[in-house]
């Protein structure tokens, strides 16, 4: 006769049965860890430049995307099922990125300027990198993260700095004074 504790032990064991062996556990830890590391690399670059989405945000986005893809794979999803999962990740993270985009007046002018597009694009790409890591495409994830890091760090060195409009320059300079 089974006592209650044996039933509880069997229930707990069956709940933690999604990783069957050490090889599978290693695969899960490697994929999630790589996603966190690569997301952290991009997030670190954003954080040292004072951007709103930094290290922790990028790490969580990458790990979340990797986990969602891993779950779909472990559940035995077909290629079409996993494609739908990826579509959901892409759309969902798009909404997260949209929250980082701000549109406002430029120094009180009637024209508006948009801020946060690079951060939004970075969050979206970080999710894609995490999804690649979660799908077992580690080399692709590492290459993409390296390219993205290059875009974020090297392109600003070579891109021309934006110049203020002549009207904006005049509006931002202090008015002349009559004092000697």
From TrEMBL:
It is a multi-pass membrane protein. The keyword Acyltransferase does not apply. Its main location: membrane. Keywords: Cell inner membrane, Cell membrane, Membrane, Transmembrane, Transmembrane helix. It comes from the Bacteria. Pfam families: MgtC. Residues 32-156 form the MgtC/SapB/SrpB/YhiD N-terminal domain. Belongs to the MgtC/SapB family. This is Protein MgtC.
């Amino acid at each position: 006769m089974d006592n209650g504790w044996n039933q509880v032990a069997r229930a707990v064991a069956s709940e933690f049965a999604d990783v069957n062996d050490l090889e599978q556990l290693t695969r899960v830890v490697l994929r999630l860890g790589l996603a966190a590391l690569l997301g952290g690399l991009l997030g670190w670059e954003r954080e040292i430049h004072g951007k709103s989405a930094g290290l922790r945000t990028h790490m969580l986005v990458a790990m979340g995307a990797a986990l969602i893809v891993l779950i779909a794979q472990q559940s035995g999803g077909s290629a079409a099922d996993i494609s739908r999962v990826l579509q959901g990740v892409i759309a969902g993270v798009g909404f997260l990125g949209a929250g980082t985009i701000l549109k406002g007046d430029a120094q009180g002018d009637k024209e508006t300027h948009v801020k946060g597009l690079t951060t939004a694009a970075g969050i979206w790409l970080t999710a894609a990198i995490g999804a690649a890591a979660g799908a077992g495409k580690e080399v692709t994830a590492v290459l993409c993260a390296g390219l993205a890091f290059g875009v974020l760090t090297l392109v600003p060195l070579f891109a021309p700095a934006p110049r203020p409009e002549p009207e904006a320059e005049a509006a931002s300079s202090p008015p002349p004074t009559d004092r000697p």
